[in-house]
Design brief:
Layout lengths: L5 H19 L7 E2 L2 E9 L2 E10 L2 E8 L8 H14 L11 H15 L3 E2 L4 E10 L3 H12 L4 E4 L7 H5 L4 E2 L3 H6 L6 H11 L6 H20 L4 E6 L9 E4 L5 H13 L3 E3 L2 E9 L2 E9 L4 E12 L8 H7 L18 H8 L4 E2 L4 E7 L18 E3 L13 H9 L6 E5 L17 H6 L3 E4 L2 H7 L4 H17 L18 E13 L2 E2 L6 E3 L5 E7 L16 H19 L3
Parallel strand pairs: 6-7, 6-14, 7-11, 14-23
Antiparallel strand pairs: 1-5, 2-3, 3-4, 8-10, 9-10, 12-13, 13-14, 15-21, 16-20, 17-18, 18-20, 19-20, 22-23
Helix pairs in contact: 2-3, 4-9, 4-16, 7-8, 8-16, 14-15
The chain binds flavin-adenine dinucleotide.
Flavin-adenine dinucleotide binds next to helix 4, helix 5, strand 12, helix 11 and helix 16.
Length: about 575
Amino acid sequence: MRKLPIWLSSILVLVCAMLMMSASNPPSGKPSYLDGSYVGKAEGHGGELSVDVVVKGGKIKSIAVHSIDTEGISDVAVKKLPEAMIKAQSVEVDSISGATMTSDAIKGAVSDALKGATLYPVSKTVATDVVVIGAGNAGLAAAVEASTKGAKVIILEKMAFIGGNSIRSGGAFNAVDPDRQGKQKIEDSIDKHFQQTFEGGDKKADPELVHTLVNGAPEALKWLEGMGMKFNDDVFTVLGALWPRSHAPIDPLGTGFVKTLKAADDKNKVQTLVDMKVNQIIRENGKVTGVVAVDAAGARIRYNAKMGVVLATGGFSANKEMRQKYNPKLTPNLGTTNHPGATGDGIIMAQNIGADLVGMEYIQLLPLGDPASGALDGWIGMNVEDYIFVNKDGKRFVSEAERRDVMTQALIQQRDQFMYVICDAHSMPTPQTKNSFNQTAESLVKSGKDFSADTIEALAQKIGIDPAALKATVDRYNEGIDSKNDEVGKKLLGNKLDKAPFYASGRVPTVHHTMGGVRINTKAQVIDVNGAVIPGLYAAGEVTGGIHGSNRLGGNALADTIVFGRIAGQNVVSTKK
Ligand SMILES: Cc1cc2nc3c(=O)[nH]c(=O)nc-3n(C[C@H](O)[C@H](O)[C@H](O)COP(=O)(O)OP(=O)(O)OC[C@H]3O[C@@H](n4cnc5c(N)ncnc54)[C@H](O)[C@@H]3O)c2cc1C
């Protein structure tokens, strides 16, 4: 990608700093409350304590405490604290002496109930039909569909640029495609895509959502092509896709998706505002009616959405605390491939208004992180059929066509959790050939990230591996292609590694994707903790859970963003609230 001029980089740093400041400062002014009935919970003296809070006309009208705390000690607090809170219209009241634990639990539970219901003063209110939160693929696609149906749509994006993870993705888009696959003699079907997705995620996904994804992907591909997006004529197998059905866009990375969708949004007069961080979804009397966003100067603006809100804020791979909270077994402080804005805001905001979450512990690691940054770029090679992984002893340790979780776990068992990807001129025919991240082979070798040599032995010397060991590994790999009997059981075999120059790129585990998120149904409606639809709230893309189960197939996420983004955009306009 083009390098930014220094002055622009400085402005961006400033904008990011202002954004962070506005996010961390508590809002000013006396809050009011949104009408509705709310449930909150907290740990009490004798176990979990819950409250029902009713707000009417912007005021707390009643607080019912369901306590199992010790009678005689807790009952004074259970009676007196709610009265005091209603009188003060605040949770900040004095505790009852002698019943401090119960008092704290009641305050905690009422705060929990009012988390999503507390509305601080705003500087202005804007009215529209649909608000979309997040300008990645899912949000942009939802906006295209909603605006095509005639709705007035505003997209709010917290970063200074649109695109999120979508624009920095490798662009691989999975869809069954009889035209392309037929020409390459690849046998495929919707059923096969379903089986591989469902079983590849250990059957932890919602099968209805998987059916929606795999059935919708071919049409989503055509929809993009119909808007002018171009893909290569051949499909390939992106890492962890398990089958050759990944489509590579002609434009670099994910830029083709974002460019195509944004052009369609612009044509439909969708308003896209950057530096606009949404920090609250407004739910009144059960229904989602809008959001509150904070601009770069810290002003709070309320956006009322007559038809509804589409949540498309992406995942939480860049939020270390959230990763550890939901999966304490994850190695802390791993790098990530994600953009810095992938912090799970949408999941937190939706949970505050009662949304159910699903599969939050399923966090995808990839074995392909840059050792310095965790980034995914910087390595040479595209097709899993055409490269191998070797450890520091020059030995292969896993099939390169395996599931992503299997490959990463195998890497974690190797010395220093480190490996080299080895490929040859079949992947990179000339020094100017670009990888999926738009980088040339020449530039990667020049920058010292990757290594190249005319023989395997010379390459081994450059990367500090015993030349004889690496040569023996590559010879066995090539023999396995002839005999169709690979030493680590790889099934998708392509070219032999026998065409100079040979390349090596050092790689480590990195956090790549969060499969968990808000629970949705096949209409992309968000479901609450009681299993009911939250009227007016739709979600699509990586902010949702239940589509990929415990392990996402490579190339399925971009398909997910377009399939469910479209569904959310269509339904936010047409579904009766
Ligand atoms: C390096 C990399 C390569 C990848 N390659 C592939 C691939 O080849 N194929 C594949 O299928 N998948 C790939 N993925 C995964 C895929 O790119 C993502 O899952 C997908 O793009 C997510 O799209 P999205 O629209 O849900 O979220 P995003 O594209 O991340 O967009 C979400 C947007 O919401 C914004 N946002 C967040 N919070 C707020 C808030 N509070 N207020 C306003 N805006 C907010 C974010 O800033 C962001 O712009 C890759 C991911 C990465 C990181």
